[in-house]
Amino acid sequence: MWLARSGQLRQSVAMNTSPTDPQMLHMAERAIISINPATLEELGRVPKLYAAEVDSAVTKARSAQPAWAALSFHERAKYILRAKDILLDRQDEICDLIAREVGKPRVEALAGEVIPVANLMDYFARTSAKLLRDEQFTLSVFRNKKSRIHFIPLGVVGIISPWNYPLAIPTGEVVMGLMAGNAVLLKPSEYTPLVGLMIGEIFRAAGLPEGILQVLTGDGATGAALVAAAIDKIFFTGSVRTGKQIAETAARRLMPFVLELGGKDAMIVCADAPFERTVNGALWGAFCNCGQTCASVERLYVVEPIADKFIAAVVAKTKTLRVGIDGTQPTDIGSLTNANQLRIVTEQIDDAVAKGACVLTGGKRIASLPGYFFEPTVLVDVSDSMRVMQEETFGPVLPIIVVRNEAEAIHEANRSNFGLLASVWTKDTARGKQIAAQVEAGTIIINDLIFTHGAAETPWFGVKESGCGVTHSKHGLREFVQMKHINWDVLPLKTNPWWFPYSEKKRRNFKLLAKVLHQWGLKKWI
Ligand code: NAD
Question: Please, which pLDDT band fits residue 215 given cuts at 50, 70 and 90?
């Protein structure tokens, strides 16, 4: 039994412990140890799979997939809806596991993971048939021809996921992959393997046929083995650094990939922002999930006329947030999820302060708590030379930058290698849309932030180094299929006008066609 619960993991919380530190994660050569980052208690051990085991999982998936693809959308949807019911029936147990493995409050596990996933299961179970319906049309110039585009399954797809939303992120991908008719291999993060196994258990309980969804626990090496295995596409969510490695491996054999990577999201606060909502939004955007959200607010630009009042309100409210071990006390903010994040956050704050940043509140690790806790922190007087302005922080840190006007805010927001989400805060929606049009990010939300990951019908994707490809919505679903285009004649003809033999008459006819195209275009047909 791999999920053996055991007692306290006696290990130091050394700030220099790296995520791949053998003592931290691989106490036994074949095992990964899952710990509660809030208490440092061991939660269980799971196997670390190697390349040979990954390859056998691919073989198993390959032989199971055709029967799954042969089912109708309606039949596949029945499994997904059954899994949704199991997820909701077991929500307390599942939220408890997420809270303990990630360190987040249970309310965040429910509102930010279980409910969005249930909604997403429902949405794709009910709409995939429509979203992947064949498209048929008559061609414009080639009027004797018709085309039909089919969206067929890719075959076997790999999903590699991070630890920050260990249920919501991989389950969404799994559901889209399954509804599209693929067999799925999921490699969850080494920090949240128990939630990863729970996903497999939910679908097993829903009666999913053997081999169609397999959860491959392990670390980066297991993930690398999956990318190198004979799969048809890889869907990766994680850091830019790993994303680039995966893209390189995949490119060597032209395997397609989707990369959902990091962010350094900007929040632009205009002079006419709805004040209280904007202050509350800044707090939640910067500190929910302990700041470990890819779309966390990591740079807030506020215009001069309201800056002093706004900063004072944000600082005052930040001081009211309750940090702690959920379940033992009322908690708004939990712990960071691993020692590496604690190290990064601490280093970035130290670097910023050494270069002149001012900490208005927070700024330190909370030593009175056993796990990886850090105070919610508000910084001002930040500059480009600081790591906190250049690198993803992924922690409870909110740098606020005062700008003269909205144009400067847009300019500063765009001076980043990242482009995941951004938000604009104004009472004037039309003005908000104008600003949004100038911001370089995948999604720009007016007077809100982050939540669209929980809305199944909206696309989620990054530009620049925040990734390539899309997840969620019909666009994300279509990442899980291959197009097949079939074309045929409406009326049988002996030859085509552009086939041999060529002649002067043919040339004149084509000249005439060129003239028609030039003068009237295709408007007659479109
Ligand atoms: P990570 O890149 O360290 O690891 C992600 C996953 O990749 C893990 O399962 C890991 O085991 C695996 N992995 C590591 N090395 C690998 C390799 N060489 N080949 C294949 N797989 C490998 O990222 P993380 O620390 O788990 O997650 C945090 C990052 O994820 C942040 O940058 C965050 O912004 C990003 N993220 C992005 C989104 C999004 O939707 N854009 C969502 C959540 C998190």
Answer: very high
